[in-house]
Amino acid sequence: MGVLKVSMTQVLGFVLLFGALARPTWTKVHHHTFVIEETNYTRLCYTKSILTVNGQFPGPTINARNGDMVIVKVYNRAGYNITLHWHGIRETRNPWSDGTEYITQCPIQPGGNFTQRIDLTNEEGTLWWHAHSDWDRATLYGAIVVRPTRGTAFPFSKPQKEIPILLGEWWIANVSQILADLIRTGGDPNISDAYTINGQPGDFYPCSRKDTFKVLVEYGKTYLLRVVNAAINNELYFAVAGHKLTVVCTDASYTKPFTTDFIMITPGQTFNLLLEANNPAGADPLAPRRFYMAARSYSSAQNVSFDNTTTTAILEYTTGSSPSTPAAPPQLPYLPGYNDTNAATVFTAGLRSLASREHPVDVPQTIDRRIIITVSVNLLTCPGATCTGPGNNRMASSLNNDSFRNPRIDILEAYYYSISGDYGTNFPDRPPSYFNFTADMIPQNMTFTKRNTEVKVLEYNTSVEVVFQGTNLLAGENHPMHLHGFTFYVVGRGFGNYDEKRDPLGYNLVDPAYENTVGVPRNGWAAIRFRADNPGVWFMHCHLERHLTWGMDTVFIVKNGKGPQERLLPPPPDMPPC
Ligand SMILES: *[C@@H]1O[C@H](CO)[C@@H](O)[C@H](O)[C@H]1NC(C)=O
Ligand SMILES: *[C@@H]1O[C@H](CO)[C@@H](O)[C@H](O)[C@H]1NC(C)=O
Ligand SMILES: *[C@@H]1O[C@H](CO)[C@@H](O)[C@H](O)[C@H]1NC(C)=O
Ligand SMILES: *[C@@H]1O[C@H](CO)[C@@H](O)[C@H](O)[C@H]1NC(C)=O
Ligand SMILES: *[C@@H]1O[C@H](CO)[C@@H](O)[C@H](O)[C@H]1NC(C)=O
Ligand SMILES: *[C@@H]1O[C@H](CO)[C@@H](O)[C@H](O)[C@H]1NC(C)=O
Ligand SMILES: *[C@@H]1O[C@H](CO)[C@@H](O)[C@H](O)[C@H]1NC(C)=O
Ligand SMILES: *[C@@H]1O[C@H](CO)[C@@H](O)[C@H](O)[C@H]1NC(C)=O
Ligand SMILES: *[C@@H]1O[C@H](CO)[C@@H](O)[C@H](O)[C@H]1NC(C)=O
Ligand SMILES: *[C@@H]1O[C@H](CO)[C@@H](O)[C@H](O)[C@H]1NC(C)=O
Ligand SMILES: *[C@@H]1O[C@H](CO)[C@@H](O)[C@H](O)[C@H]1NC(C)=O
Ligand SMILES: *[C@@H]1O[C@H](CO)[C@@H](O)[C@H](O)[C@H]1NC(C)=O
Ligand SMILES: [Cu+2]
């Protein structure tokens, strides 16, 4: 980075880094080049320039196996500062490749390059990559498909075909301008104009029908849908008309198979779903042979406007002779109401880790460090009362009443090079004040927060429990909290205020779901556990982009352990300059 000199230890660092990474640990090494550029795309009757990777939208799928290494050379040919993040990848000891703007790196500036390493030692299932700068991920995203290592198999019968289903969100306007307006006005962001499935809005939007995404299936065969919610600001329900879905994996962790009519997926989460093409109509050439897959919002916050449209794709049976009647319009699946928190809760409660001999769980049974974090939407006073938030204040959000502000130099480099003044280490372990967090009415004077850049430091190998407590400050809402560098066990979840004595008695410490993003119930809480055995600097934030922008974020710094394999790797030689 510009402000630093290259020291002897740094040079030695590179030698050690390449020494360490050159070990023949990987089954296979894949090389990709991702060129970020601005490309014109037409959706909803309007053409606009969007950010793409290699001209594609959605971006390219990374296909690999568990145990592989993927090396991506990122070349930024666009006119914006950008970073790319590999969502849900542990990146053991190597936060340098995590790609979070001003947390683990300064952005790749226009014309710049940065080579990132995606270490797939620990993952198997569906993950995804996306930009982690401003709201660039609106169009910069793609799937990461990690299959079982050669010689091993899925813990279910091999599907006929695997189909990525990337759920996204589209604005007709320039998304950078939506973000700029949000920051300038201090109010809510403009809602999107469409949701998309694999980049296509579907039949219920103007100028979209001819490009609606279609999946062709044969009667009697089973298909694996790899579903990712890449939307910016919305949790989504997803279902397929006339078919049940069997959840077998979430966030690259196998689950006990669980059959459902619909799923609720938060931004950041992924689900692998088995779909059996067994609708009797599928075998009958005279019956309707097309069914909609559809997604629309689960919007739990009262009085917050949201995109209330429905995106669709088509599941079409190819079995039998061609239909003698013109294809009837496909039917829509049942999707719960936009505010049906009960439906979301019943679905989420069904998730359990597979916990088999081949895929065991390792839930921390004793806890060294207990942290309780309130998750709130807040206000900041606006100079001149010119903002468009409630009472002409500025919208904000916080964790334990700290509204995170990005530092000038990324925290990882400030930590590694001991640059002082960039961040503080006083992120609280507990809510700074206790009140009825989930009360119907909370006095307006309690909604104000403060901005700072405080992180939490953890000793290596600490077993950590974090309880996220949703609050009803301004508006209670389901918040998808995402942690980088770790996957965690979701040991408990409930409504109302977390009770430190009673609620732990109801924890699942046997087969809890293992996730990288947890939906904290609206006006409720969620408890997660993980072992801090990955030294580095790891971002934790709400995956609703407006809340991330408003400050619902913090950082865990996990210190080095004693052994040589318990230490942060040195930085790569091409870190983007600040
Ligand atoms: C993209 O579209 C704009 C206007 O719609 C046009 O001015 C520009 O030349 C186009 N860019 C490319 C690369 O086609
Ligand atoms: C980045 O890589 C591209 C393609 O290899 C090259 O043309 C460009 O000069 C590089 N940029 C810098 C700043 O080195
Ligand atoms: C989109 O908005 C950003 C931020 O205002 C601006 O810099 C950029 O030029 C705009 N892009 C287009 C294609 O208009
Ligand atoms: C957002 O919505 C407002 C109000 O409808 C409109 O004036 C503004 O132009 C929109 N912003 C963008 C970037 O389209
Ligand atoms: C919803 O918003 C309107 C207008 O801002 C306000 O008058 C009303 O009290 C709000 N209702 C709730 C339940 O917050
Ligand atoms: C959402 O749209 C549906 C129709 O698609 C309508 O019935 C419902 O009232 C709308 N809800 C809201 C909150 O706008
Ligand atoms: C959901 O929204 C409908 C219509 O807007 C309303 O009548 C109902 O009370 C809401 N339900 C909940 C649980 O908020
Ligand atoms: C907190 O608020 C909720 C919702 O209004 C209420 O049901 C509950 O009784 C309150 N708890 C306490 C301890 O006052
Ligand atoms: C907030 O206002 C209430 C009255 O509405 C008052 O009792 C309370 O002390 C105030 N709290 C703070 C932190 O100012
Ligand atoms: C949050 O911090 C602000 C500013 O210090 C303070 O006014 C407010 O009472 C605090 N709120 C809570 C819920 O602790
Ligand atoms: C981490 O802590 C656990 C539990 O105390 C212990 O079993 C394990 O050996 C420790 N691992 C390391 C690498 O220190
Ligand atoms: C791009 O990143 C550099 C390095 O952090 C920063 O100095 C510059 O202000 C950024 N540019 C924009 C437009 O944000
Ligand atoms: Cu949130």
UniProtKB/TrEMBL annotation:
Entry's Gene Ontology cellular component terms: apoplast
Catalytic activity as recorded in UniProt: 4 hydroquinone + O2 = 4 benzosemiquinone + 2 H2O
Keywords assigned by UniProt, alphabetized: Apoplast, Copper, Lignin degradation, Metal-binding, Oxidoreductase, Repeat, Secreted, Signal
Entry EC number(s): 1.10.3.2
Cofactor descriptive note: Binds 4 Cu cations per monomer.
Domain Plastocyanin-like residues, every copy: 36-149, 162-318, 427-561
The keyword Disulfide bond is annotated on this UniProt entry: no
First and last residue of the signal peptide: 1-27
Cofactor(s) recorded in Swiss-Prot or TrEMBL: Cu cation
Protein family: Belongs to the multicopper oxidase family.
Protein name per UniProt: Laccase
Species this chain originates from: Ananas comosus
